[in-house]
Amino acid sequence: MHNYDPASFHTAIEGKLKRKHRTTLEEATDKEIYYSIASIIQDLVMPKWFETNQEIQQNKSKQVYYISMEFLIGRLIESNLQNCGLLDICNQTLLDLGRRPERIYEQEHDAALGNGGLGRLAACFLDSIASLGYAGHGSGIRYRYGLFEQRIIHGNQVELPDYWLKEEYPWETRKPDEAVEIRFGGTVHEHKRRDGSLEISYENTDSVMAVPYDVPVLGYHNEVVNTLRLWSAELSPAENKGLSASDQQYYHHLDHIHSIEQISGFLYPDDSTFEGKELRLKQQYFLVSATIKNIIANFRRNHDLPLSMMPEYTVIQINDTHPSLAVPELMRILMDEEGYGWEKAWQITTNLLAYTNHTTLSEALEKWPVSMIQNLLPRLYMIIHEINERFCEQIYTTHPELRDKIHELAIISYEQIHMAHLAIVGSFSVNGVAKIHTEILKNKEMKNFYTLYPKKFNNKTNGITHRRWLQQVNPCLASKITDVIGPRWVHEPHKLMNLLRYTNDAPFLETMKDCKQHSKHLLAKYVYEQQGVKLNTDSIFDVQIKRLHEYKRQLMNVFHIIYLYNELKDNPNMDITPRTFIFAAKAAPSYHLAKEVIKLIHHVASVVNNDPDIKDKLKVVFLENYNVSLAEKIIPAAEVSEQISTASKEASGTGNMKMMMNGAITCGTLDGANIEIRDFVGDDNIFIFGLTAEQVLDYYAHGGYDAKSIYHADVRVKRVLDQLNGGVFGSQEIEFKDLFYNIMYHNDPFFVLKDFGPYVETHEMIDRAYRDQNHWQRMAATNIAHSGKFSSDRTIMEYVSDIWKL
Ligand code: GL9
Questions:
Q1: 650 lines ligand 1 (CB under 6 A)
Q2: Known catalytic residue: 358?
Q3: Radius of gyration of the chain (CA)
Q4: What tens digit of pLDDT does each residue of 82-105 get?
């Protein structure tokens, strides 16, 4: 994509600094250099972006639109440099200039337009779609505030606003000419035309402009540039009445502007819990309506065909139920604005939409009150109502065996709208994100829907982009891999399998270990700079990084640490392999128990890290403000990957894949994609423990298990729990009674005590295994070799061949 060599790149930066910042290479700040590099990339990207769009138009190729409320893209500078083949040149140039590349790259604000796995998956998918050369676009919201920034004050999480747009974002291009109008509220009027068709008109609606901001998505070394379109809510010109400060209506008007801009104001910070706020519903409709209008406009620009032909050229993937208003919105446009009858509109709609389910947690399922949808989206409500009527009637006539299940399957029941039901009924494909998750959908959560529509259900096990999560974040390991198996794995990640030939190759295992040590030193340096804690880089780096949630069981990890601490206090000469436990996690601001766990980790850390008896054998660190950039620092240094969710709860997980790809060994339950990781690497190269999903679901069906009996029977457990309740960790005022009560009197809903014994024993095995470094490195190499299966390139190829048919 470029003709730069280090000398001309140097000149280019110099030119940008002079023209855009009126400064010199010597005097420029890191930020000015960052903006100059970003601008050089944008100059290269723009013509390719234009050409990619031209090509799509001329070839009339089928396109996929990925609608998502979240795109957790993180920083783009390094991956953009890498994908257009400039990373090495840029790094060299910066070093020659006496600048540290990482200092320059970290000038970019980490774009946190997502909560966790679901949003990061969307970002990995965009990378793979472009790198594989498919025509695919993301459509999301340009939140002015991303996910909150986390600070820890006296062990407590404090949330700060993430105003990421306070400085110019160099990757976006505003496209005001492609803005569309979105309407909310008001009343609907139906007039019957002479031919019997309905004419719909609205009165007293509020109108908002959705203005697109486009971010380029670069394919890897293939000149393809796709688009991530982020919509921003602005005052519509019709409503801008040009009031002056003396008008009576002035403050009313300001208030109105504010409420409109709020629609793209901030990202809701809940991971896997449904918050039925009206503003969130507005955000969802805003995204869906803007996207669909845009898709129709694109179709009209590219083809001279009726909209009934759209499914041949377009497919829309909805990321969870958040965009499931796409079903009634498409129906509305096709019927009310394009004149199609119900049957034809329904056929078009259901041939365009495909739905991905990301969780079976009941608290995550979206159910909007009928009254809220009626008020905010009166016409959509009428359509949802009709979809529901027809759906229930269809079950009654075609599936008599399901008649007594109609109330469970209905889209509207008990004054609530079940968005998952709407999404399933309104789309041609429903997929889960790992084998076990899809099986649970088919056989349990969505069982009756599976009976109705067996052909809709399919599995697409998640993946991650190996370009970011191996090549970019771990250049040392990436180059050593290329040294032995050649560079083809970058284009064809399954070729990582060729590493299996080197799992007994002592020199290769030694270089792998060197890379790991190098990454551990870098992380230790960061930890020291951040919090003044010195890590023992000869200890096992044991990592649990993900959102803080009860089902992910960070608490079980902490209980194990407390147990180890107790053992060492009883017997300071105990022979254990030194360990460093590394945590990073944000808790949803209103999630009390999750915040208690963060506090507990800090209190355990301060006791353990400051106890002279413990020496270098145990360290606990919690790294503040977990985000994509922090994950990029931690993952290359991880040796043990904690994937310890209560079986059946973690739909897939993707951190598990990122860490195995960097040579960490998984310590995990038989949940989500852990199962497929085990199937690939084999039992000898993973540490599996605990209840199976089947056992967990069986316990739930019978009212749980008896947590108190374990407390009384297992002295290790009793000691840990009593320490929680007795002020051992922290002062007397800071007791962890709520955590204690949740286990003892709410009967340990996530089976922490039940799996504790097997978890401890598994860690004893890890301790012993690590002592044989040759064996450990062999396990690591085996994991890396199999990780190619978890590249999002593989996932996207499956979406393309089974669902999208591009
Ligand atoms: C999640 C699942 O919990 C994860 O197991 C899964 O890997 C990802 C991606 O499919 O989706 N579903 C979900 O709601 N979240 C997930 O991480 N949470 C958010 O990120 C909002």
A1: yes
A2: yes
A3: 27
A4: 999 999 999 999 999 999 999 999
**pLDDT, position 67:** 98
Taking the C-alpha atoms of residue 740 and residue 628, their distance in angstroms, rounded to an integer, is: 32
Mark whether 465 is an active-site residue.
Answer: no
pLDDT of residue 730: 66
**Burial grade of 486 (CB within 10 A; 0-12, 13-18, 19 or more):** exposed
Residue 437 CA: nearest ligand 1 atom is: 5
Q: Which residue intervals of the chain bear CATH 3.40.50.2000?
A: 60-75+110-340, 466-691+750-790
pLDDT of residue 257: 85
Q: What is the pLDDT of residues 445-462, one digit of tens each?
A: 999 999 999 999 999 999
pLDDT at 732: 62
Residue 468 Cα to ligand 1 midpoint, Å, equals: 19
Catalytic residue, chosen from 75, 322, 358, 467, is 358
Which parts of the chain sit beneath pLDDT 70? 240-243, 730-733
Contact 118 CB / ligand 1 (< 6 Å): yes
Give the domain 466-691+750-790 fold: Rossmann fold (3.40.50)
One-character DSSP codes across 380-430: HHHHHHHHHHHHHHHHHHH-GGGGGGHHHH-SEETTEEEHHHHHHHT-SEE
603 counts as catalytic: no
CA of 272, closest atom in ligand 1: 14
- Expressed in angstroms and rounded, the spacing between residue 672 Cα and the centre of ligand 1 is 11
What is residue 251's predicted lDDT score, i.e. its pLDDT?
A: 82
Best mutation site among 66, 362, 419, 652 for ligand 1 pocket (most ligand atoms within 8 Å of CB): 652
Residue 72 CB less than 6 A away from ligand 1: no
Residues 274 and 280 sit within 8 Å (Cβ to Cβ): no
Active site residue 599: no
ipTM of this model? 0.97
Which one of 3.30.420.40, 3.40.630.30, 3.90.110.10, 3.40.50.2000 gives the CATH number of domain 60-75+110-340? 3.40.50.2000
